[in-house]
Specification:
7 strands; seven-stranded mixed sheet; single chain; binds guanosine-5'-diphosphate; alpha/beta; globular; 22% strand; Rossmann fold
């Protein structure tokens, strides 16, 4: 069955750039895009039975109602995936969490969520500290949060390490299961 981590985020939040940066360096060499890519799910094979699932960006500057509509197919597509270990949520640090994000965070329970606050090169140090603090406060124990920038190479290693840990079957395999 293997293990996979889904990357989700609003369109233009920096998701593709984050996936490329995280997968193209050392430990997580990206092997290939699966040819049988579907409209909704785009798989990046990372290692034996380890995958990133790239979901299409969701509503940007749209009202709550249209967000609900764009969300549903993603949720339906992800729901049956028993190999899903958790979600990397890509959030533009200049915008922070928005209303529509809560629907997904709520749905994902009890899967872990890790938030990348992207493009922090666009913020000064105090602004970056503020959005990190505020996002952590909103999420409490529900998610871990980090600063991220492809341009400034901020937080790439931190994200890689967590991704590797989540994809490591030895951590999650039930006692007696293969690889335990
Ligand atoms: P996606 O729609 O979420 O996949 O977003 P993309 O990865 O395509 O990025 C959207 C835009 O943000 C592009 O113009 C990127 O060049 C820009 N971008 C992505 N990462 C960064 C970053 O770390 N810093 C800055 N300044 N721009 C970024």
């Amino acid at each position: 069955m293997g293990a996979e981590v889904a990357f989700v985020g609003r369109s233009n939040a920096g998701k593709s750039s984050a996936i490329n940066a995280i997968t193209q360096r050392n430990a997580l060499a990206r092997i290939s895009k699966t040819p049988g890519r579907t409209r909704l799910l785009n798989f990046f094979e990372l290692g034996t039975h380890q995958r990133i699932v790239d979901l299409p960006g969701y509503g940007y500057a749209t009202g709550p109602e249209s967000e609900r509509v764009t969300w549903q197919p993603l949720i339906d597509a992800l729901k049956p995936r028993a190999s899903l270990r958790g979600l990397f949520m890509i959030v533009d640090s200049r915008r922070g969490l928005k209303e529509g994000d809560e629907a997904l965070i709520h749905w994902a329970e009890p899967l872990p969520i890790h938030i990348l606050l992207t493009k922090v090169d666009k913020l000064n140090r105090s602004e970056a500290g503020k959005v990190l603090r505020e996002t952590r406060q909103i999420m409490g124990d529900r998610a871990t949060v980090q600063l991220f920038s492809v341009l400034a190479k901020t937080g790439i290693e931190e994200a890689q390490k967590l991704l590797e840990a989540w994809l490591d079957d030895r951590v999650f395999a039930a006692p007696g299961a293969e690889g335990a």
